[in-house]
Structure prediction request, 717 residues.
Amino acid sequence: MRKTPGQLWGRCAKEAFFRKDFELKEKPESAVLRIFVDTGYELFLNGRFVAYVDEWNNMRDYNVRMYLNPGRNVIAVHAINTAGHRGFAFELLLNGTDSVSSDESWKVADSELWGWMLPDYDDSAWSAPVVMPIEIFGMPQWSSLPGDDPERVISPIPNTPFFCAEVPKFVDSPFYTKQPESFIPSAELSELIGPEYAESAKAYPPAFVHADNLMELNAKNGAIKADGFKVTASATARYEGPEFTIDFGEECCGYFRMRVKSGKVVRFRIYYGECLDECFAEPEPEIPLHRMLIETISLQPGVQEWESRMRVGFRFARIEFFHCPAEVEVDGFHVRNTIYPVAYRGAFFCSDESLNGIWKAGRKTLHLCMQEYYLDAIKRDRLLWVGDTRAEALYNYYLFGDTELFKFSMRELAKCQYENGAIGSAWGTGASLLWDYDAWWVIALHDYYMYTGDAAFLLELKQNLCRATDWLTARANAEGLIDVPPNPLKLWMVVLDNSVGIDPFLNSLYLRALKTSCEACGLAGDAEGAARYNALIAKTEPAVRTLLAKSPLKDRKSLYSHSTGIYEVIESLFKEGDSAAALALIRQRWGTLLSCGADTLFEGMYSDSMPQLAERHENNRLAHISFCHGWTAGPCSLLPAWIAGIRPLEPGFKRFTVAPDPVDLTWFKTAVPTPHGEIGLVFRDGTYTLSVPENTTAVFRLNGKETEFGSGVHTIR
Prediction:
């Protein structure tokens, strides 16, 4: 009969190893396994690898009938959480009725021992786990039976013990089945901007990245040698043996591959890193997600093309061998990139090479973070966050003009809306509630409508966005302003520094959410809803203007260390006409990142100068920071939107403004994607050449003069 699972704990803070034996009279007709671990796990059945998951919201249902046998069966789970292990819950439903669940009959060890996942391993010395009620998880999904929703059940790909190249990749997006979009700029734009536009459009991340440098060989307890990129190693002791380090020469996002040849079972560990320090740093409590960059592998004798179980962002890989009594040969090191199929329609070139480098690095950063949805980062978290999605989608409109990934991401986030109307900060049941992120989710829908003209999608989520706005309205005072109460839980609001009271920036986001909800009601013909939001706007807008006048964004120093915060500061400087200060901030903050030799952009604005950033790196304080974080690609939209001045006036760029402000640039060229085609603008020798797509109107603003242009190429002096 079906038993209610318990929550199993080990004693170790970082990881725990669990085993359970059970008997079957015969192979079941159906077997659905449900598991949740805070925060990641390796799952084995009868010594065979089933799954590796390293996401925070990781409950899965697996079809595991293929792994079961009549007689004795063994479940083995490696539970992982460097921030403090909190246990796991497990349920195996057999033939829809009988079950094996997590209870006191399981055994647990606090450290990894050779062969611990194998059926014949002797676990008699292991202890009993601590069992706690599953309700502590707050996991409402357990109320339904595994397999009730067939779409939720994952069927792993059968593989030989333990792993081979064909292992399940549960995070791979359905988008990957599409071919990359080929984009050839029009003859008109190619002539206007030049051959660099066509070259930029083809500068796609490669499908495979091959090793660039074999950096270091260390024999330790064994022997190791290299012949080019072929490494031969043997170990004389278990758990400590030869190691070597590989540099792929650039940031990659995908699956690490190599060819392995061994006469006996071989076991090794791979340490991945975006910087070299990460490959040699030990997991620390203050680096809670570092464990996600370590992979332990066992391979059977023979020759096999091995591929990593997890998709990860990295540049360096350190491979450490142990338990390899015979010689092991490894070569063929490369990374299979996972690439979202999108066309490189946007472009920006100018007389400042540092800005060109920032723009290119931003494009690569954003594209790598476009995976099954808009990821915050390719190394750390790898989650769908609201704030990241809004920022990354905005940059996308100027780089690629893609719509599908945004719609998929927003629909997924809408599924996680609380009953009270608030939008959780990230995908997953029970995501933390951030007041500013609730507003950002609504604002992201306005951005989408303005840049695409797709009213249908706005109307699809009208009810969700109005409920999210209403949740904020319920927290407004008589003046129409949100007053954040003292928060004993130290509520994390990304850009607000845990502010309490009436915060100008939060209220400016609330005002933008009100306007979006009013816009959606108008499109839906909901006159009553539109009137209600108009009344709220009339009360709130003057109060917000007064707040911002007293505390302008440029004076909020806390915003300067945050990627999306400084984006808002820079945009406000452009709007106020202080373009020189805005461009100086871009050069200073993003230029610092590139001066470190990065080919992608880091998570935040960590310093004002290279020496400070270098010091953090030398002291290994960057090991937990994301070196490829999509929301940092802000210049990819700031430069074409404000230096070239190209912004939509009507949804879908039916009418758009062109208000160029070159500042100190002697020339620039840009192409901006729209639903009607690409807008092109070239500035050189005091002359502007503008290409306007068909069925659109450009409003050109220069020196206080405004001129309208229809489709075609126009010269303005």
